[in-house]
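ok so heres the complex, three chains, lmk if somethin looks off
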Amino acid sequence: MDFVILALVMLAIGIYGLLTNRQLLKVFISIELIATAATLNFVMLASPQGLGEALLVLAFSVDTAVSAVILALLVLVSKRYGTGDLSKIIAKMQENAEKEESEVEAQ
Amino acid sequence: MVTILDVILPIFTLIVAALITIPIFRAIRKTSHKTGLTAAWFIAVFAIASITIVNLFLSYYSVANPAPLNLTLDGTSNPAIATSFLIDAIALYMAIIIVGIAAVVMVYTVFFVNSAERPSDRYMAIMLLLTGALVGAVLSGDLLTFFIFWEAATAAAAFLMLYRKNAFSLNATLKYLVMVIIASAFVLLGLSIVYGITGSLNYIAVREAIGTITGADMNLLIIAFVFVAAGYAIEAAIVPFHFWLPDAYTAAPAPSAAFLSALVDQGSYYILIRILLFIILPPSVGGVFDWTLMMAALAALTMIVGNIFALIQNNIKRLIAYICVADVGYNLVAITSANELGLQGNLYFFLIGSLTTALAFMAVGIINRHGFKKLDDFAGVGKKMPWSSLALVIAGLSFAGVPPLGGFIAKYFVFTAAISVDLTWLAIIGVLTSVLQTAYIFRLVNIMYGKAPKDGVTTRIKENKYLLIPVFILVVAIFIFGLFPNLVLELIQPMLSQLPWTVP
Amino acid sequence: MMLEEFSAWFVWIIPLIASLFVPVIGKYSEKARNYFVIAIAGIVGVLALSLVPSVWSGEGEAITYTIPWISGFVEAGVYIDSLSVLFTCLVAFFALIIAVYSQGYMKGEEGLTRYYYLLLLFIGSMIGLVISDNMLQMFIFWEMVGLCSYALISFWYKKPESIHSGVKVFIMTRIGDIMLLAAIAILFYMFGTFSFHGVIEGLQSGVFNTELMVITAFLVLGGAVAKSAQFPLFTWLYSAMEAPTSVSALLHAATMVKAGIYLLSRFILIFAAAPALIVALQPYWFPTISWIGVITAFIGATLGLMTTDIKGVLAYSTVSQIGFMMAGLGTAMAHTTDVAMSTGWFASLFHMVSHAFFEGLGFLLAGGIIHALGTRDMRLMGGLKKAMPLTFALMIIMIVTTSGLPPFAAFFSKGLILTSVMDAGSLIQTILIFAATAITFAYCIRMFSLVFMGKPSEHISKIHVHEAPKIMLVPAAILAALCIVWGIAQPYIASFMHIELEHTLLGAFTSAETPIFLLLLLPAFLLAYASYYKNFMGIRKIAAGKNPLTAILNHAYFIDDLYYGIAKGINGFSAALTRFENALFAHIPDKVGSDISDAAAPGHVMTLKKGPSDSFRNYVAAAVLGFILIMVLIVLTVGFGGI
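and the predicted structre for the whole thing:
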């Protein structure tokens, strides 16, 4: 049952990372870590039923696809706002929203 | 006879409708009857969705005393590992409520948001998507299918909060998202352990498997349970996981708040019912372990904290958000008193709670539009906007459990159930907090009708007729279900013979 | 369908349904609306009367008719016995009186449609309350009369005091409602039924938990105390006087405040199904009732001495008189376990009816005076004897009846209560209740002198005072006539209630308490007469000065201050909690969460002082704490062994 403990540790690290980081990339890595913890559990616990390999392949392919999409989004976001810092991005989004609103009012 | 197609049809209808809503709106915006056509589109969608639900309902009840039905997506393979749907009285009841209330809120939304605004089509499409995901979630037959639909619903819910992009709603949404991510992580981890122990995530298969486990597996099961329970407790906003809820509901526009409080929040104890009463089973009928104390403590905490915080809120929307937290507590009382009466009370409370919170947010939404937001602004609103104020007062009285409104019978069921399983102390806390509820509701009534407005203007403000129609549909529903609870209870009755401990 | 079944259903369904038509009719013609209300009140009266013969000729057994309501849970029904029919007739009679009186008193007011709508709703609910055959149905009506009372007290909603009083009354009576609800829940839990018949059968079978039943009895008492304005929850009735006087007469003198008396007498009847239970209740429960009764009777009477509000005097008089009834109920079962042998039980119900007559009369007359003068302050009155001779004459009847002088109604009814208390109560109780009777006389004389005697005040000389219109005097005259003759009805009512009275009618004059009672009245009369009629200033100076006695009386024994203190404490506590919450989780440093709505408004510029992740840390800390809480609770109950 060691991998259960490993998964729990990974979860704890992931949550800690989620809390302390403002960089989008680090937030993303933390979320990945949490997801991997659960995947690890699934795969290891499914092995006795003979489903471990099947799940592993499935999990890998889904994970890769999702990561690709998220990374693409991250690149887009940091290009648009010029930063990867979450609080700065929020501040900029807010400015944009206000600009939009004032434009609507002007019309 | 129910086929898998009957089950998928309502979910499919709603999600496909959500996807084609945006192109359809693009076409509608070019015509001159924007609002009318939008309303017509949603009425059509919900008419079709209702027909599919009614079809499912009728085909399920075409045999006398139907048993719970477990259907898999591919029809043939082992239900233990395939995506499966569970059709029984509770699932059908929830699906009917979700579609019904969503339809009423949807009509309100069409007239509430300005259809000329650009985000409005996305907004309404996401509402449809959320409805579809919720119907899928309540009809699902295994923990993983539920989890997937539920994640779709929470993601959609986050977008609903974000309609107005100001700092406050961005912040609230971000908080909600972080909490939801942590919740999903907890749930997923718990599910993985459950899967490891039992080899399946199907409700029925898990129930049968955990009945026989012992030793170290038992400890693992407890860990898994705590993870899953904590995860869903975050989403149901049980104290002490409730902090995201007041911010989120205050930031969200009125239709979203109505939608979230009535369906997403109230719906999240559906899974608690499934887990506690259908998988682990109540301790009195041979449950795997005793969860009564835990749920009772959380229920007491939620009722007390929700009501006390509601007492001093100055913003009306935030006040109602805290009442929602308190309502969660009353629901937990019903779950904790796990017998037939409690389950009946729970499902009845689910309906009444949804109607009441939706009504309150919708009425407040109308009043807020004219700039009345804080408690002081509400002075004299009763005379300025008599109809919306009346609706808000009725919602408040139903919250406080004043007969003959629905809230009274609902609370009565719940407390009677708690007393019948020797949880009298919980019922006493519930009753005392209800008194507190009366106090702040009447303070609100006092301010709305008794105080002169700050600016001294008492001219009547014209209320939008189209917004009042859905509001008063809910008012009538609260009255009718309060006076004739039988209408609802007859829908719930078949459930009593389908409980896992009554089925041989 | 039998006649009485038909009457028993429709006597409350008709006014409830008719109330919905009031706004419709009121839209077309005000006159038609007014006649419609009187007609409905008349029909209700006829239906109520038609219930009398079958009960009178019956054996004292209750008749019930039920229809299904919530399947497997409760049936709706009506319960016809002498108690419910007595109350039904009283409510129906007063409904008619007030419907007629309102034509004069409320003439020209705004919002009359709402008034009549609420009046009919109240009549239907009140009759529904007394005639229900199960506790759930009764409780719904119990709440509905509370709501009607709230709405009618706040009728003049433009006056802030009206609204404030309405809220106060509702919240205070709600405390009692909750206790009653708890009692009903316990009874349901024990007997699995809400119906009175079911509970009686359960008690007769003897299988019940005596201790739990005693607790239930106390909870029922709590409900009655709040609804009937008894110590320590009596202060709401004075606040309720913000209502129109016609409403005060109907709700706060004649009918609604008697709901508590109904509740107690009904439950005494039910408890009497098990003599063992009555024996268990004798040491604590019954004495508690009689103590509450005599204390309230005394406190109410003393407060009546101080207030300057003419309706305030009548309100405290009501509180005090209901205290008498409670004392009667509390001493009812001291020597017997059979209600049919109990003097106190009958005495308090008999006094309930005579009180309705004389207090109702008082309110109707006070209404006339307020109508003419435009004020409720007695210091602004005086010398009305000449200007309002008919009111003056009727008021004499009212005060002699209230004081219990022979041969008027209250002499017989109050006399029976005094007998019962002397017979069964302790010495202090007896002294207190006799003192209350004497003070009753004193406050009556005081009110009478301040209003009718002496020189007209400046306020009066400025306005032209007119006699009340006929339509207001006729209902008053009917009540006055009843005050005079009602006492003679005692044996008939006793046979209607199937009670065997030891006393004959003449016995009232010869029994032991009468001379004491009359002797006590004399000094009370002399004192009040001297100070208020003859302008002997000694007592009036004490009353106007600052000393502990007046401080206590002016603050109504500081009971309201106590409640406000508690309310403030709760508010302070939750404000502190909010500060705590904001300190931990607020993203915006604001006061008590108030600035959030500004922040949410579109276009509001706000700078984020903290990064979002800073407050997230607290959020997730809360989540982790909650996780640990769940873990600990589970491990506490289940245990965690094996690894």
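quick notes: The first strand of chain C starts at residue 63 and ends at 70. thats all i got rn
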